Amino acid sequence: MRSSGRAFLSALVAAFSLAVVGTAGAYHTRFVADNCNWGAPTPTSYITRDGSATVALRARYEGYQWGGGCWNDNDRDDSPGDPTEDPNTGGEGPDCSGFTFKVWRESEDKSNAGFYQWGLFRFVHGPYTAAGFKAGEGAPNVTLSKSALIKMDALASTKHIGMIYAKNADGTDQIIEAKGEAYGTNIWTRTYRGDASYSGVRRTGWSA
Amino acid sequence: MRERPRRASALVPLALAFVLAGASGCARGDSPPETLVDGSPAVEPPSELEDVAGAAVVTAVRVVHANDVEQGSLAADCLRGPARDVRPDRPLVERVGVHGVTVTLRDRDGLHACDDAPGPRVERRRWCGGAFGSLSNGRLLDPRLDIGGCHTEDGEPVAFMWVEPAPGTAFVAVQQPGYVEVYPVAGGLPVRISTVSGLEKDPLGATVELREHDETGQLLRERTVQAVPAG
Question: b/e for B58-82, b at 16 or more Cβ within 10 A?
Answer without folding.
Answer: bbbbbebebeebeeebbbbbbbeeb
